[in-house]
Amino acid sequence: MATIRSREDQDGITIGWQAQIKRKGFPMVVKTFRTKAAATQWATVTESEMMRGLFVSRSESERTTVDSLIDRYAREVLPTQKGGHREVSRVKHIKEGLGKYSLAALTSSLVADYRDARLKIVGPQSVKHELGLLQRALKKGAQEWGIALPGGIPTFLVKKPSLPASRNRRLVDDEEDRLLTACADARNPWLRSVVVFAIETAMRAGEIVETWKQDPSGALDANEKHLQVKVSSGLIWENVDLKKRTAHLPTSKNGDARTVPLSSRAVVTLEALPRNLDGRVFGATYEGVKQSYNRACKRANITGLTFHDLRHEATSRLFEKGFNPMEVSAITGHKTLQMLKRYTHLRAEDLAKRMG
């Protein structure tokens, strides 16, 4: 049964009205309003929902803001996830755009407005990742943290941005020779070997060299700078078998282990390397390789070829050598044929040769 009481200040002046509902089988529900009419209306609607079995407590969703939800998700969930370091900047943007709203007030139209505003600044893929992070945080709150969302999870109703056509950049003409010549002249002594190995194995950068990223918790060091955490040690010698011509990866981006076969060229590249005391095959970090690689491309007058495009190149070459999709996925770590389609851009002239 609902009880409506006035709330008064020290001088006995009414400053609001409190509605309180006690009903068997439900937790006590209390809410304060500016007018008695509003309190009475809310109590009537809420009791009706309880009688029909439709009542969902809004108290937690009204008390919890997007800001606090995302903070908790970043603190408790992201550090446990592989690749959680990639979410740091996404957390920041979500908090800036939607952080002030309570979860009860967060609607699909607000999320859609956020999407449209972000699309004016960054690409569709970035916005899609941000919406995905928000959706996972909302689901976590609703399913495990006791935060009921009366209107459901608003991101479910928002259309995700359409993604542009996948990249189709391959090495053409004498670009590989020019690139490797420029890499050999780089200050980074590991660059040429890393690039050759990437082209020969289709391995990701983080699977080849040590990678550090910003701590997903957002923690700061004594100098108020974001802490860096190692997310990958890269390839280590104990996982390389030159006799069997294999490189074992205990973990990867998708969480699965795999063993990569090594071509003759990849083996020759490894045999020429010095052995580091720390066990790493390549004594370089991804950030160092990335910077050196970009400078090498500039010296070689090569435009639009990212380091990740070398994985596209390697994967496409596997298909051109006659490997079937299952064999290629075992080498590259792609889980589905649909994922492989993004990376496989076979040259028409090469296909024509096979047709006879």
UniProtKB/TrEMBL annotation:
Residue span, Tyr recombinase domain: 166-356
Keywords for the protein's UniProt record, in alphabetical order: DNA integration, DNA recombination
BP-aspect Gene Ontology terms: DNA integration; DNA recombination
Source organism of this protein record: Acidithiobacillus ferrivorans
GO molecular function terms attached to this record: DNA binding
Top-rank taxon, per record: Bacteria
CDD domains on file: INT_Rci_Hp1_C (cd00796)
Protein known as: Site-specific integrase
